[in-house]
Amino acid sequence: MDDSAIATLRESASRWGATSTRVIPIEDVCVEDWVLLKCEYGCKMYGKRFTCPPYAPSPDETRKTLSNYKKALLLEFKDLTDRAQWREIQIAMYELEREAFLLGFYRAFAYTCGACKLCEDCPSDDIGVPTRFDKRKCKNRRRARPSMEACGIDVFQTARNGGYEMRVVHDENGCFDSFCLLLLE
Q1: What predicted TM-score, i.e. pTM, was given to this entire model?
Q2: CA dist., res. 56 & res. 46, Å (int)
Q3: Cβ proximity of 153 and 57 under 8 Å
Q4: What percent of the chain has pLDDT over 70?
């Protein structure tokens, strides 16, 4: 792994608002089937964004994807107070993925945090029986990336494996931390 390229990506991540970054072995990324239950039975955005389940890759597909990588960059965005900040984070992750590609990590792929906020309204909200082909209606296909949790990644365990302390936010309107993942090599 090119240390200077990683340093460049870390500096860019900091400019985009990441509080910290850590290079982690791909084995530290924890994928669990139960994570999708939290989406389906706990998130009001389920099926309302093309980056969310049932449109997002399944945990099995995510495991297969991860098996093609050795390292990833885990990014922390700390003390967020406004969920609208996710839009900027989603743009940042797309830009970091692109930068990683240009730095030679041609297989780079980003996972964001939370439901997609790139568009005010998503056409997926009007689809009754979703299929994967419906994603062609996405207005931001070039920049839209799924969140870690939408693909079955246990964000808490992955962050802990990466050396971060995790805490549950008890007040939905309080400060929270978010994590994103950039697959590199």
Answers
A1: 0.93
A2: 10
A3: no
A4: 96
